Amino acid sequence: MTTEDIKNEDSNIEETQENNAPDNSEEVQNDTETAENGPFAVGDTVTGTIFNIEDKFVKVQVDDSDYEGIIPISQLTNKRIEHPNDIIALDDSITAVVIKVEDDAKNIIISIRKLDEQKAYEDLKQKQDADATLEGTVVEAVKAGLVLDVGVRGFIPASLLSDEYIEDLEQFTGQTLEVKVEDIDQEKNRVILNRKRIVEGEKSKHRQAELQDLEIGSIIEGEVVRTTSFGAFINIGSVDGLAHISELSYSRVNSVEDAVEIGQKVNVKVLDVNPEQERISLSIKQAGESPFNKFIDAHDTGDVLNGTVKRLVDFGAFVEVSPGVEGLVHISEIAHDHVNVPSDVLKEEQEIEVKIIGLDKDNEKISLSIKALESAPARPKQAKQEQNSQVYTDDTDDDAPTLGDVFGDRFKDLDL
């Protein structure tokens, strides 16, 4: 085989590596008929020694035969090289696979790259089955993802690169990345890799470690990262916790956005931790001093205060007597007269004066009264019904007249 023939042969089996196209040497294999009596067949593995290096190919003396092996430059490696000297030298011992036989000329076309690829695919398949991690070097960044060398050309779609959007893919060029095998199709020379699962796994381990270290009752700093109708999610490292709307402030909160905003730094108290479900319950209000405790320390039963009606309910009115501190005026304590519903007498945001009639520090409850500040109204006195009781007396004495004295002899002639 002449040098020109080798160049033409190399052109026939060249593949477009950038597109991960199928190996055209397969076409050569399918179109080649092995000599019936030749010592080599397509697919055989051979060993030999490099004895000649040209610009586009190298020659190998095949061991234990009088055949020469010819390796086109495209079949030396799956990497891009300018000259065979970049990766090989005279007298190097090599192992390759036969991809074409020319028995008459006692030449065989052999490929180191194809043998390496076969071994690489076998290894990748084992890695995939075991869900094992392997390393690959990024050789190129394209719009849709990254091309890696993992023995063969593998591809990481941008969607499988990380659990977060990455805009600049060029930053990975030349880096060695840990990946998992997502899919293999050897016939199409296609290997899909996944880095996202590794990133997620590492973050999960880190989160679990942080969750285990969190102490219930501890107070730490966090940042509000998301708000919902029912509370605020607060980042406290690599994990987020939820502060329910009822735990945002001691004052009544109608809307989460009224209490916190995204990006705000806050101190939070850890209320509960569930490592299995990766859930953390937090409180912003309990991270600070309770205004109720301050109020209790400063006031006693009997104190008279100014307050604002905040809520009216069927059984009474909640009155704010200090920022973040509300007490209850029971419906029976609103007025001396009977009150059907609190709204008959009071309205929300009304300023009123109240008296403390009870303090429950353990349950953080304050009992208030409005009527205790007012005198009971004078009620009309019921008219006394004078009974003209006749008093019967017995004045009988010895001189009192008898019936005989009264009626005399009127009944003497009656025949009784």
TrEMBL record:
Keyword Ribonucleoprotein listed: yes
Sequence segments annotated as region (Disordered): 1-41, 375-404
Entry keyword annotation includes rRNA processing: no
InterPro entries: NA-bd_OB-fold, Ribos_protein_bS1-like, Ribosomal_protein_S1-like, S1_domain
One GO cellular component term: cytosolic small ribosomal subunit
Keywords on record: Ribonucleoprotein, Ribosomal protein
A GO molecular function held by the record: structural constituent of ribosome
Biased composition (Basic and acidic residues): 1-10
Residue stretches making up the S1 motif domain: 43-113, 131-196, 217-285, 302-371
Biological processes per GO annotation: translation
NCBIfam families: PRK06676.1
Function: Binds mRNA; thus facilitating recognition of the initiation point. It is needed to translate mRNA with a short Shine-Dalgarno (SD) purine-rich sequence.
Family, per entry: Belongs to the bacterial ribosomal protein bS1 family.
Protein name: Small subunit ribosomal protein S1
Organism name: Jeotgalicoccus aerolatus
